[in-house]
Specification:
39% helix
């Protein structure tokens, strides 16, 4: 596992990221980014993703409180709904609205953060969401 800092990264770090991204693309493997982003980090990450269009990136937790930033993501960036059970059910309509704008059927993935959170709890939570 590599921990990468997008802001202030050295040219060596950025070269390593590109090498990892290329290897993942060549192997048809996605890269999961599991971290909290600062605003500048999101923009830097999106520039990286846009520069590697054949690589699939998955951002965990819908970017957390910065979820609306997903609308600016390049087409090779996906997200998961892990942590959904921690959100207020009152937010469900807004989540669904954003998912639809982001491309829910193609770019939002089921995730649970198992073993900390149970996948069946996420599936049950989705039953309360206005998905149809």
């Amino acid at each position: 596992m590599h921990t990468l800092q997008f802001i202030g990264g050295t040219s060596e770090t950025l070269a390593s990221i590109r090498d990892i991204s290329q290897a993942a693309s060549d192997s048809h493997l996605p890269i999961l980014i599991h971290r909290l982003f600062e605003d500048g980090d999101i923009a830097a990450f999106y520039r990286l993703a846009a520069s590697q269009p054949k690589t699939t990136f998955i951002v965990a937790h819908q970017l957390g409180p910065k979820m609306a930033q997903l609308l600016k993501a390049p087409k090779n960036v996906y997200t998961d709904i892990s942590g959904l059970t921690l959100a207020s059910r009152a937010a469900a309509p807004e989540f669904v609205k954003l998912w639809r704008a982001f491309g829910m059927m193609n770019r939002v993935l089921l995730g649970s953060d198992w073993p900390m959170l149970n996948p069946s709890e996420h599936a049950a939570a989705l039953q309360d969401y206005p998905l149809t």
